[in-house]
Write a structure and sequence with these properties.
Blueprint: E1 2-3, E2 6-7, H1 9-38, H2 43-95, H3 112-143, H4 150-180, E3 182-183, E4 189-190, H5 192-212, H6 226-243, H7 265-281, H8 285-291, H9 297-302, E5 308-309, E6 312-313, H10 322-344, H11 351-379, E7 388-395, E8 401-405, E9 411-414, E10 419-426, E11 432-437, E12 440-445, E13 452-460, E14 464-471, E15 482-488, E16 494-498, E17 501-506, E18 515-517, E19 524-529, E20 532-537, E21 546-555, E22 558-567, H12 578-601, H13 608-632, H14 638-661, H15 668-699
Helix pairs in contact: 1-2, 1-3, 1-4, 1-5, 2-3, 2-5, 2-13, 4-5, 4-10, 7-13, 7-15, 8-13, 8-14, 10-12, 11-12, 11-14, 12-13
């Protein structure tokens, strides 16, 4: 059955691919944040495990291709591995339910190792599933066409690529929104079970859709795997060459010619072409090492930025959607506008030049990321190091004050209702301080601990009141949340609530602990003083800030409050990530699309699976490079790591340009034709010989 000139079965395959990619990219989009916030891993471990997983997903296709070609056939392979895949996604979803081990119901899993074990099992099953079916689905789609449908087949591959990007685009938009919801039985949490559950459901849909179409598929029997043949041929050539290494054996034109005792001329010629392309692949992993950091390092970078786009609040993991959106726009633009323009300028933009340009652009994107990182670092607070303490002063009094630190250290003046931001001292040197209001002086001894921040509240009452508050904050709030605490500057007790969070009763000049609020909101502050309710709506506190709010009084049921900024909010806007995404997407368009086309044009048609395997291998190796570089470089500064990656890729790009310069393009069809010609001659010659033989026999 056909529809619009396409076999009907194609539509099932395209829908299946869309659901599968939605499932994979949706899960991958929130993965690094799941590691960081749910499993409580640090940035480096989260990045490492993320890239290990991606590397696995690109190593398993080789396994999938072997199973499909040598044993089960594509159809059965897709079905059996999809089942594994669906189970993996479901396990992943279960692993993120914090009520699973949260027996004391405090919102934190009591036994994290259960969650870690489950999510690792889930990820391994997913890697097996997604990798195993990756080489089969596109090829299985190609099998559905007859030989006379060449045009439809190439159009199918374009639609196929589009469905991949549509799936990844939608899931990268939707899954982070699901993650940002609050859900849970006993305590409200970020909703990871839903963020992993929806991809699991879609994977099940993909599987069902694929099975429904099963009556219509053309199923090609497994033909045996070319990869195995090629490997055997190479192995035999090396072994044979080694056996005949002494001088008496004549040299052969190419080391692969040593396989000619056992393998036919055609296979050897084809293997030579394949190896020529695979040799060019050696520098390519470095590109993927940079490209795949969108999901790890760049997402973590976005968590320290301001995601407020006018009316919409963008989640850090949603910034990855910039890539598929741009791909969908850029692929047609580049093909229809940019390449023709370059052609008009009489520049011969060969495939290998395109790949070189792609590498250069990716390295540029990382320079852009480093520039953004430098801007972010300027806004990050500096916390006290070992042996140091920091003190901030808030003057709650009605007149100016002077604070002197131990005779030999400096003194500062603080205006009424003003503050002096954190000053850093050597903990061992600072024992006491004096506060002077007009003529009254008060001395206080300081029991400071190292690596801590303190706030000093001072006020001129009958005698000078000095309160030292320990600030329990040691890092900037994560995920763009805000920390808020209150100080009571009234002469009587007050009861404070903000939004739905109760801060309890505060005595005069005492402070509450910090509470966490989600960023970008404005909440109502309520204070009950002598049973008189007073309220005010807070100002917008941005993202990732910490504030101390001082309650000064109440007139006409309106609170009088003063805000003191302890940690400044994220001020660098997420939109600043768009340039680096744009440059990287341009790089992907000229690199990725060209790479596969070039590979296919330089090798015989029956060797495509070997090249596909090689190409996916470059992605896997790229992700392993991230592990090695990020692990080996002891760079404490994130921007320096970006620059390091940019420099490495630039060096590799230059090496590749040199390799490409010496590469000569071949036409596999011509070589095939020559081989056919030789074979024909050989057959004719054999026939002549046998005919003469017959004649000679008949004469006897």
């Amino acid at each position: 059955p056909s529809c619009l000139g396409y076999p009907l079965s194609i539509f099932f395959i395209v829908i299946n691919e869309f659901c599968e990619r939605f499932s994979y990219y949706g899960m991958r989009a929130v993965l690094v944040l799941y590691f960081k916030y749910f499993l409580q891993w640090n940035d480096n471990l989260s990045t490492a495990i993320y890239h290990t997983f991606v590397a696995l997903c690109y190593l398993t296709p080789i396994l999938g291709a072997l199973i499909a070609d040598s044993w089960l056939g594509k159809f059965k392979t897709i079905i059996s591995l999809s089942i594994v895949y669906t189970i993996g996604q479901a396990v992943m979803s279960v692993s993120s339910i914090n009520d699973l081990t949260d027996h004391n119901r405090d919102g934190v899993p009591d036994n994290v190792s259960v969650h870690i074990a489950l999510s690792m099992i889930g990820l391994i099953l997913i890697a097996l599933g997604t990798g195993g079916i990756k080489p089969c689905v596109a090829a299985f789609g190609g099998d559905q066409f007859n030989d006379d449908q060449e045009k439809q087949r190439s159009r199918f591959f374009s639609i196929f690529y589009l469905s991949i990007n549509a799936g990844s685009l939608l899931s990268t938009v939707i899954t982070p929104i699901l993650r940002a919801q609050e859900c849970g039985i006993h305590s409200k949490q970020r909703c990871y079970p839903l963020a992993f559950g929806v991809p699991a459901a879609l994977m099940a849909v993909a599987l069902v859709v694929f099975i429904v179409g099963s009556r219509m598929y053309k199923k090609v029997q497994p033909q045996g795997n070319v990869m195995i043949e090629v490997s055997k041929c190479i192995g035999f050539a090396i072994k044979n060459r080694f056996r005949h290494r002494s001088k008496q054996f004549p040299k052969r034109e190419h080391w692969l010619d040593w396989a000619s005792e056992k393998y036919d001329k055609r296979l050897i010629a084809q293997t030579k072409m394949v190896l020529k392309v695979l040799f060019l692949y050696i520098p390519l992993p470095m590109f993927w090492a940079l490209f795949d950091q969108q999901g790890s390092r760049w997402t973590l970078q976005a968590t320290t930025m301001d995601g407020n786009f006018v009316a919409i609040q963008i989640q850090p993991d949603q910034m990855q959607t910039v890539n598929p959106i741009l791909i969908i726009i850029m692929v047609p633009v580049v093909d229809a506008v940019i390449y023709p323009l370059i052609k008009k300028c009489k520049i011969n933009f060969t495939p290998l030049r395109k790949i070189t340009v792609g590498m250069f652009l990716a390295s540029l994107a990382f320079v852009a990321a480093a520039l953004v990182q430098v801007q972010i670092d300027k806004t990050l607070p500096v916390f006290p190091a070992a042996g140091q303490s920091q003190i901030k002063i808030i003057n709650l009094g009605t007149s100016d004050a002077t604070v002197g630190f131990d005779s030999q250290l400096q003194s500062v003046s603080v205006a009424s209702m003003g503050s002096v931001n954190y000053m850093t001292f050597e903990t061992s040197q600072l024992k006491s301080l004096t506060v002077t209001y007009g003529n009254g002086t008060s001395t206080k001894t300081l029991p400071l601990s190292e690596k801590k921040r303190y706030t000093l509240g001072i006020k001129n009452l009958a005698d000078t009141a000095v309160e030292l508050l320990s600030d329990e904050v040691t890092s900037k709030p994560e995920e763009g949340n805000n920390l808020i605490r209150f100080i009571n500057n009234l002469p009587n007790d007050i009861n404070v609530t903000m939004g739905s969070t109760a801060f309890g009763t505060l005595g005069p000049l005492s402070a509450s602990n910090y509470s966490l609020f989600s960023g970008g909101r404005k909440d109502e502050i309520m204070a009950l003083s002598n049973a008189v309710p007073c309220s005010i709506t807070s100002k917008s506190l941005g993202f990732g800030s910490a504030y101390t709010i001082v309650i000064n009084g109440c007139s006409g049921n309106i609170l009088d409050v003063t805000y003191f900024e302890d940690i400044p909010p994220n001020t660098v806007h997420m939109a600043w990530q768009i340039p680096q995404y744009f440059i990287l997407t341009c790089a992907e368009v000229v690199f990725s699309v060209t790479g596969l086309e070039f590979s296919y044009s330089q090798a015989p048609s029956n060797m495509k699976s070997v090249l596909q395997a090689g190409w996916l291998l470059t992605v896997a190796v790229g992700n392993i490079i991230v592990l090695i570089v990020a692990g080996a470089s002891k760079l404490s500064e994130q921007w320096a790591e970006y620059v390091l990656f940019a420099a490495l890729l630039l060096a590799v790009c230059i090496i590749f340009a040199v390799m490409a310069y010496f590469y000569t393009y071949v036409d596999p069809n011509e070589i095939e034709a020559q081989l056919d010609e030789e074979e024909k001659k050989r057959v004719e010659k054999d026939q002549d010989v046998s005919e003469k033989q017959v004649e000679a026999d008949s004469r006897m």
